[in-house]
Specification:
The chain is of the alpha/beta class. It has ten helices and 14 strands. It is about 40% helix and about 20% strand. About 10% of the residues have low confidence.
Length: about 280
């Protein structure tokens, strides 16, 4: 076979290979687009079809989603706002008990449609979940007893021998583990609670956010709030969903914008003593 013919055949073969790869790439892109389109709006469609929105809550979060053990009634800012979300959607609300350690798997495994319990927008969480625009923010505060000899001010917290409690799974855990150089961080998991450990004298102070601090300040006279002298680690809070459904996230973003504009956010914050940490 002449060299020119061989060269021509090779060019044709390379051309066919290029075309084949381009077609294969196009088919993969089309498949990916079709898959995304098939899932787009899945949650909102299901919510409307079943007339119920499933909302993950942490029922121990005072001022946010706190369930009264006597009456079983849910109260708090996000308890009120989740009811408003259901009203806007024209559906019923079904609460799913969750927690900060359970937050990510509960959403990724579709046990609920949205988490509404003042979820801090941590970078680690944003890698796995999607968040609405923030609707409030909080710094970190310390809670100690008025009689504790070791901690009287913020400067006393990071000292040798001081036992500092944080709830495992909250945003305070990685922050305090990274920040404290001298104090000992004690991670608290259920059935233990930070306040019981504090009352028993096993820790000197526990770290929390502003909403949770209201629980003890509103119900006891033996605690002392330790505020940072300047902003320490202010974190925005949003509502969290699993990734892959842009329409559902957009609908929740619309809800946040609506409650900011029409005053429902300010009202819910005022009802629960949280006006200090919501945008005005």
């Amino acid at each position: 076979m002449p060299a020119s013919t061989t060269s021509h055949c090779r060019r044709e073969q390379r051309t066919r290979q290029v075309i084949f790869h381009l077609l294969a790439s196009f088919m993969l892109l089309a498949l990916a687009f079709w898959t995304m389109a098939a899932h787009a709006g899945e949650v909102l469609d299901r919510v409307r079809a079943k007339s119920v929105v499933r909302v993950c809550i942490w029922p121990e979060y005072y001022g946010i989603t706190f369930r009264d053990t006597r009456s079983g009634r849910l109260q708090g800012m996000d308890a009120e706002l989740s009811a408003e979300l259901a009203k806007d959607l024209g559906v019923q609300v079904q609460y799913v008990d969750s927690s900060f350690p359970r937050l990510i798997p509960d959403l990724l495994e579709s046990r609920c449609d949205v988490a509404m319990f003042a979820v801090g927008m941590l970078a680690q969480r944003q890698q796995q979940l999607r968040f609405t625009q923030p609707y409030m923010s909080s710094d970190i505060y310390g809670i100690t007893t008025k009689s504790n000899p070791a901690v009287k001010s913020w400067a006393d917290i990071d000292k040798p021998g001081v036992q500092v409690a944080v709830q495992r799974g909250t945003f305070m855990e990685p922050v305090m583990l990274q920040t404290l150089k001298h104090a000992n961080v004690v991670l608290i998991e259920p059935p233990l609670t930070r306040e019981k450990e504090l009352m028993a004298g096993r820790v000197d102070v526990f770290m929390t956010d502003y909403p949770y601090s209201r629980r003890l300040l509103d119900s006891t006279d033996w605690v002392q709030l330790i505020a940072p002298p300047q902003p320490f680690h202010v974190l925005p809070y949003g509502y969290a969903v699993r990734p892959g459904d842009a329409q559902w996230l957009a609908r929740l973003d619309q809800f946040v914008a609506d409650i900011k504009r029409d005053g429902r956010l300010a009202k819910a914050a005022r009802n629960n003593g949280l006006s200090l940490i919501v945008p005005h």
